[in-house]
Structure formats: structure tokens, C-alpha cells
Write a structure and sequence with these properties.
single chain, 650 residues, alpha+beta, Molybdenum Cofactor Biosythetic Enzyme, Chain A, Molybdopterin biosynthesis moea protein, domain 2, Molybdopterin biosynthesis moeA protein, domain 3, six-stranded mixed beta sheet, 38 strands, binds adenosine monophosphate, binds magnesium ion
Length: 650
Amino acid sequence: MTNANRPKDRDNVEQDQFLTILSREDALSRFEAAVFPRPVPSEPRALADALGCALAADIVAPIDVPPFDRSNVDGFAVRSADLAAAGEARPVRVLLNDEVIACGTAPARPVLSGTATSIATGGPVPRGADAIVMVEHSQPVGPRAIEIRRAAQPGQFISYAGSDIARGEALLRAGTLIGSREIGMLAACGIANVSVARRPRVAVISTGDELVQPGQPLRPAGIYDTNGAIVTAAVSENGGEAVFLGAVPDDEQQLEAVMRRALASCDMLVLSGGTSKGAGDVTHRIIARLGKPGIIAHGVALKPGKPLCLAVCDGKPVVILPGFPTSAMFTFHDMIVPVLRRMAGLPPRSVAKVTASVPVRIASELGRTEFVMVSLVQGTDGLIAYPSDKGSGAITSFAQADGFVRIDALADQMPAGTRAEVTLFTPHVRVPDLLIVGSHCSGLDLVIAPLVRAGLLVRSIAVGSLGGLAAAKRGECDFAPIHLFDEMTESYNTPFLADGLELVPGWRRLQGVVFRSGDVRFEGLATAQDAVRAALADPTCVMVNRNQGAGTRVLIGRLLGDARPEGYWNQPRSHNAVAAAVAQHRADWGMTIAPVAHAAGLGFIPLAEEHYDFALVTARKQRPAVQAFLAALASEESRAALEQAGFRVA
Ligand code: AMP
Ligand code: MG
């Protein structure tokens, strides 16, 4: 057993579950006070390797750029006074000096009055000359002279020494992030090596018995280690050098050994998972032994992210992020990045913000600073920020969201209609061309694919049929995909439409009973009714139901009548969850759609066809992206792809 220390700890874990929760601001300032001041160590780097580093010291220009007065054009170096009287009708003839100044050629002869020297772009201006005449504005007169028919301003077409960068000028300041432009400026000054802030080495450790590294097969009850990848990338994004040490089981001895090794060679340690003060969660107890002052905050009034643990051990920050990836990501960016960037000698990260109105009320827990991810939509008067949270366990919320709004710890809600500041995940928001909010179906991806290939930004937000319908009624999306069965009329979808919405037929999904292939209770049965009868006849047979409000639930209800077999109260919210429950033996039968059953390798007995259609917001029908979607839906390509995937096109 990996958790050898569990039993003896169980007695004293309950009482101190987050006894002292600090506010976000308090926790951050105590954490910073314990880490800083600390010197930012520097190291020399060749220019070619300095990309992305922060300069450790100001750089003063060691030379003038350009280093000499330089011609900007191909032409002739002249004395402007010689040409004062020149005009279209009064050409001035000058003699050519016996040299040609190419790039890289130092002039040997002066330009005396009445003479000119041939010069190339980039050539050094010779003594005596104070202007350049373009070759286009001269005519050769024999091999040794030219005629010029316009006057020249003193200084024309000359870049003077130091006009670009003046020797002694502060070229770049400490803390500047070195990009290609900075590298160009340094190269122009002849600088081949710079002193940069040494990237803090940040050890990244995931903890949990359940974790499996991406690329490995997922074992039963396993979860892919998401935080390892997230934190490693976020460390690199913010000036650190991430050292990923893998996932360590929840075993106190093993974990302590890895943590001690990491601290010996790194400047900072970021763990994730196991931060609750629960029985299996051992990391915080190890931290207490690693060095002074130890834990600074364990429990921060953040949502998501309450179990965050901040510590400093002998000058090195040690952090335990919450296990749920979204919580880990938010807390890392909000609480750890400011410290990491300071350690890396970088300025605070600049964030882009926009103002948008929030169309629905967002409930919030009083006393916790809450971050709510939002998707931006173009409304009639400005941007609309649509909450897109799926709960702290969901990683896809991040992909669908453009940014987040922050709800103050002292607020218990953000009222509908609030004009809120949205912090963007990336500085360039691109509002989607087509917004689909409602029930998700894998068939939808097939219809959208050609639109995306054509360059449209399509966003589909999965909130279920009813949620989509509500968004469509408020006019916040283009389409709401729905599959709602009306028992009164025994029909799909149409009875649910409101004014301003119209139905666009989508496709049919075959619903049926799923079971594991080879289960003799079901194998060979002809109808779903037979299957349910067989299931009810065996008291050890466990079902998996669906959530109230799902179209599938209605179908199950009709088959079951008053029966409440084992598993009835297991009511997941998706077709895929039903298939997973049966495939993984948590249940023996359930109802789902044919493509999902087949993808999961399950046996399938058909019952009825469900209608998956689109409630279209009529006012948005003429939008080009909506028209493109309608065309894609009707196209042969989509129909073929849908049929291929097991759907029947209406
Ligand atoms: P914990 O704080 O360890 O109890 O974890 C809370 C939840 O986050 C559990 O569902 C864990 O499986 C999950 N979790 C913890 N660490 C990771 C990780 N590195 N990647 C993905 N999920 C994780
Ligand atoms: Mg864990």
C-alpha cells in the first residue's frame, strides 16, 4: 500500500481542515514578503542564446550607430553650395573624383568644390561633401563629369553618425525581455554577449496515485497528469526553467525524497494535488520539515483554488497547487506567476482587458475571490461575456473561454447586466463568427469542420438543450442545438420554440440499450423492451440512468414504468458517461446513442430515433456565418460524414 502512513494520521486530520483561510491579497503579500528581497542571479549569454531572457543590467551603447556619416542612396557625394544655382534650365557640371565609394570602402579623397564622388548606399560620406545627389537626378557627361539640374539641401540623403543610436545612450534597461528587436539593437552595437537574469530552476512535481503520464496507456481509475504539462509550460512562459520530475504517488517517504532532491538543485518547487488536509494528503506535512519558515498560507479565499498552499523553505518558495487542473492553472497564474517573474528579473506580466456585459447572474461564494471564465460574443451594443465554467474539474473551459471576470470576495453575486472587466487570456480577442450554444453532439463537429477550414471562428459552448434554448431566446447565440422531447405532443423540439426562433432540422440519433458484448442476458435480444425486461428479471443487473430533463431519460422512463432497479439513481449528464459506466462495469446496461455505443465497443439494441435540431435565432439568420453554416449543413459532404459516423440526416 502506497499510503502506509494513512491509518495513524487519520485521528488528527479532521480538526484543522483549513482553519485559517487567508484572503488572496493577504496570502500573496505574506508570500512575497517571505521570498523577497532576494538578488536576481545573472549569467552571461551569447546573443544567440539570449532570446526570451531578461537583461540583468542596463546596457549603454558602446558605439555610435551608424558609426560614420552614411549615404542613404546610390548617387554622388557633393558640396551643396556648388549646386545652389542649379535648375531645370541651368545644369551645373561637376567633375568626378577618381574613386568609387562602395559599402565597406573608406574614402581616400576629399570632395573639393566643383567635384563629386560616386557613392553607393551605405558608403561613408567623404570629407568635404555635405549632401548626396541621387543617381537618377544626374546625367553623365563623358566618363569624368556629370550634370545636375536641381539644388541639394545640406545633409540630404545622409544619416549622420550616432543618429540611430548615440554612443553612451541607455540602449536597453535591466528587466527588458530580449526579443528579436532587442537582439537586433545589440547586434548593431557589436555586442555579442549579454548579462541576463539566470532563469530560476523550478522543479515541477505532480502527486497522486492515480496519475498516468500522457503517452502511456490509461489504466482503470487512472487520470492523465494534466498539471505536470500545464505547470511546466506556464513556468517556461514566465521566465523559469522548468524541471519536470514526473508524478509521484501519495507516499510520504517517496515524496519527501523527491522533494528534498528537487530543493537541493532548484530555486523553487511547484507541486500539485494532495493539498487538502485530508488523510492521503501528505505534502504539507513534508514541507514543515524542509526548512524555515515553512508554510505561509494553507487555504486561500480563492475560487477556484481554496486549498492552495504557499511555503518558503530556507529561502526557496515551495507551492502546492490544487489538484484540479483549472484550479491549478488559475492559482498558478494569479498567485505564483508574480513571484516567479520577480525571481526571474522580469517585469509583471501585462494583461489585456476589455469591458463586456454579463448577460446572466453569476452566483458567487461570499468571502472568496472568484474567477469565472467567460466567452466573449459580439452583442448589439458591445461585447457580451458569457460564463463558460464547467466546474473546477474541467479543462475544456479554458479552451472555450477568452478570459475571466473576477468577483470580489465581498460580493455574493454578479448581477445580470453587470458591465464587467474581462482579463483576456491572450491579448487579441477574436470574437467568434458563429456561436452555437446548447447540446453538444459529435456530429456537430463534422458540420463545423468545413467552416473552420474556410477560416471562420466557430465556437460551440455545451450547456445542454435547455441552457442553449435560454441563450437563444436572449439572442446571445446564432443557434441552439436541442433534442427535447415533448410528452404532450409526443414530438421533438418544435413545441419548445419561442417567438424569434425557428427550427432548422438537423439529424436523427438512434437511441438504444447498451450492454457489454457477450453479456448473455442481452445478447441476441431483438427489442429494447425485451432488454429491459431481461434486466429487471435479474436483481444483480445494474443500470445507469440519465439526468432529469434529458431526452434519453424520458425514453428510459417509459421502458421502466414504476420499476426502480439498482443503479436508477446514478444519473450522469451525457451519452458518453453512460457508455463509460457500462464499459467499465459500474453498470450493466443503460441507454445511449448508436455512434457512442459503437465507439465504446458496446452491444446495442435500438429503441427510437431522437431528433437533434437547431433553434435558429431568426434575427441572426442573414449573418454570413449563419448562412455558411446552413449551407454546410445541407451539403453532400456533411451528410456523407454524418451518415458515416452513424447519424441519419433528417
Ligand atoms: P487532490 O487534491 O490530490 O485530492 O486532487 C483533486 C483532484 O484533482 C482529483 O480528482 C485528482 O485526480 C485531480 N488531479 C490531481 N492532480 C492532477 C494532475 N496532475 N492532473 C490531472 N488531475 C489531477
Ligand atoms: Mg491526489
